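Final report, closing paragraph on structural work. Over the funding period we assembled a curated collection of sequence-structure pairs, and we close with a single example.
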Amino acid sequence: MLTRVSTHPWEDVAVKDDGDEGEYIRAAERTLQILACLNRRPSSTIQDLHNDTGLPKPTLVRFLKTMVRAGYVTNDQRQSGYQLTALVSSLSSGYHGDPLVIEAGRPWAIQLTRQLHWPVSIAVLDVDTVVVRLSTVADSPVSPFHSTINMHLSLFTKALGRAYLAFCDDDEIEDFARRGESSPDPMTARIAGDRDYLYTLVRSIRRSGYALRDARAEPRNSNTLAVPILLGGRVRASLGMTFFRSAVKSTDLYREYAAKLKQVSAQITADTERLRETYSPEKLPRVS
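Its predicted structure, as stored:
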């Protein structure tokens, strides 16, 4: 149940009577709902948006006029409806990669670090490297690093990069290899240019299901073991755990860590799919 605070229909401030504290702007909630619905199709009519949101048509017209004036929406009569403009891309500039993977992965990564103590990271593709978007370094008592967030890692020499690369399709791998040949990093360029070595490495990672950092890559006092995170059967991110080489030497321990990472990766995949379903425009609650 809501209590109307403001008398202006565009600036409703509502207070929940069910014990939740604080106020929220109902107009802002409606704006976000309308933007989500506009994102579902190339062009939306007032009737489309009325069916989607349940909002009265005069209310929708007022909101859309405001969005047109702000530059986020255009009303193209030739298309018989409203469309989002390129300006909406500025709303996503704070997100890098797939935010749902990070959201789904955060509790699992923290839990794994609490269990095994080593720091865990999730990386997503950024053009021709992977970039770390989640790290539990702060939760680890034995981390080899002070910070890894936003660190760019080679697809050819780093474990998180290799775990991503190996599970791409062959055309994608070839494309990454061609670009890698001109990398300013000599080791990346050398591995990318040696196709026999590269594809032998890819086959080995696919067989085992995990990747390790190249032994020649810095820092040499630590190592990372990484696995892919798959969505819809395609690699979308990689999950890795970093440890001191002196503390983890046996192949059996590598396999044990790999098994745990694979389990966590599967949980992240399942939770990401659930979040996608939850956040789909069709499942968003109507705002009355």
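The longest helix spans residues 251-279. The CA atoms of residues 10 and 265 lie 44 Å apart. We thank the funder for supporting this effort.
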